[in-house]
Amino acid sequence: MKDFFEGIAWLFEEILFLPFNMLRELELSSWFLANILNWIFVIIAFAAFIFWMLQLKKFNENDEENRDPTAHSFLG
Asked: Where does the chain cross the membrane (predicted)?
């Protein structure tokens, strides 16, 4: 049973964590390249935010919403 768990530990340490080890070594030479995945996520989030704001603007300009304070029961 001990060999089974040592095999799992070896799999994670030597195989599955290899990309993270490579990023850790890359950080010594280039911080920006080591954080490329983070930069990609920031760009995706920024693009999603811009898209969402443009959609809100489009629906706001349609002026179909009833903006009267008594339009919704929870406001009155």
From this structure: 31-54
Low-confidence ranges of the chain (pLDDT < 50): none
Per domain, the residue ranges of the chain are 2-62
The confidence score (pLDDT) of residue 32 equals 86
Q: What is the dihedral of CA 59, 65, 68, 71, to 10 degrees?
A: -130
Structure tokens at 55: 């959609």
Count of Cβ atoms closer than 10 Å to residue 27 Cβ: 13
pLDDT at 37: 86
Residue 26 in tokens: 């890359």
Whole-model pTM: value is: 0.60
Torsion of CA 11, 15, 18, 20, to 10 degrees: -40
H helical segments located in 1-76: 2-10, 18-26, 31-34, 36-62
